[in-house]
């Protein structure tokens, strides 16, 4: 069995007196695509931000079996973790090309240029817009750029926060095709996604968060047919 890319135990995140994440446990193994689903306000985004080093947390987080307490976000990036945040997080006044190169900021190898061309092949629209300011792109183009920028770091673990939010169906399909391709290349993925059906259709396993806690988990195919998931997150009467 593949070694864990991410292991989270007893993770807690608070905003003042409000406890947003209440001791969750989850694991993503190398090469595995894991979906994290739940209602708005369940604590999914807070969990991803804590894992990525962007929020203070308590508990235990291990990246490739190494504890990361106290490790700053840019050092986690160097260790192979990349986050595509909710809202995309563009450098709006920088060009598309500059945003992509920022994704490789911590790299010191000679293949950055090759990877840039590979991103342009994977996302032809970005090549067409390479000299355009990122803030002037459409929502779908910005999501492509956010994903491509993260991939420029050559991550071994990719955290994705609501990649389909606000996108037209055709663009959602394109983004999820890329996520599936990335997973097939062996990159571990933890996917937070409002479209629970789509997330579970491409995932290996899934976790369901409710009120800051993981309420249940299992193989993605099993969760797709679970009565609780179907009623609460797939809009199906059971």
By DSSP (H or I, 4+ residues per run), the number of helices equals: 10
CATH topology of the domain at 4-88 and 155-232: Rossmann fold
Task: Report the radius of gyration as a whole number of Å.
Answer: 17 Å
Full CATH superfamily name of the domain at 4-88 and 155-232: P-loop containing nucleotide triphosphate hydrolases
Kindly estimate the percentage of residues that lie in beta strands according to DSSP: 25-35%
Alpha-carbon distance between the two ends = 36 Å
- Return residue spans where pLDDT drops below 50 for at least 5 consecutive residues: none
The shape, in one word, is globular
CATH class of the domain at 4-88 and 155-232: Alpha Beta
Largest sheet: 6 strands, mixed
Assign the CATH architecture of the domain at 4-88 and 155-232.
Answer: 3-Layer(aba) Sandwich
Estimate the mean pLDDT confidence.
94
Helix content: 25-40%
Give the neighbour order of strands across the main sheet. 6-7-8-3-9-10
One letter per element, helices H and strands E, the order comes to: EEEHEEHEHHHHEHEHEEHH
Count of extended strands: 10
């Amino acid at each position: 069995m593949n070694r864990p890319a991410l292991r989270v135990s007893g993770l807690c995140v608070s905003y003042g007196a409000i406890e947003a994440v209440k001791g969750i446990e989850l694991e993503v193994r190398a090469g595995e695509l894991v979906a994290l689903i739940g209602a708005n306000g369940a604590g999914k985004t807070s969990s991803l931000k804590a894992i990525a080093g962007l929020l203070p947390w308590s508990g235990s987080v291990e990246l490739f079996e190494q504890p990361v307490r106290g490790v700053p976000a840019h050092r986690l990036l160097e260790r192979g973790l990349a986050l595509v945040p909710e809202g995309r997080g563009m450098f709006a006044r920088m060009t598309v090309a500059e945003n992509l190169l920022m994704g490789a900021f911590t790299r010191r190898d000679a293949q950055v240029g090759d990877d840039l061309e590979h991103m342009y092949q994977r996302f032809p629209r970005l090549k067409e817009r390479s000299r355009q300011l990122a803030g002037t792109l459409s929502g779908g183009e910005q999501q492509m750029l956010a994903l491509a920028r993260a991939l420029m770091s050559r991550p071994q673990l990719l955290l994705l926060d609501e990649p389909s939010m606000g996108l037209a169906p055709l663009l959602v399909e394109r983004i999820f095709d890329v996520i599936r391709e990335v997973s097939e290349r062996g990159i571990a993925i933890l996917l937070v996604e409002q479209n629970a059906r789509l997330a579970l259709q491409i995932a290996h396993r899934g976790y369901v968060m409710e009120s800051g806690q993981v309420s249940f988990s299992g193989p993605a195919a099993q969760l797709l047919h679970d009565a609780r998931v179907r009623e609460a997150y797939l809009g199906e009467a059971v």
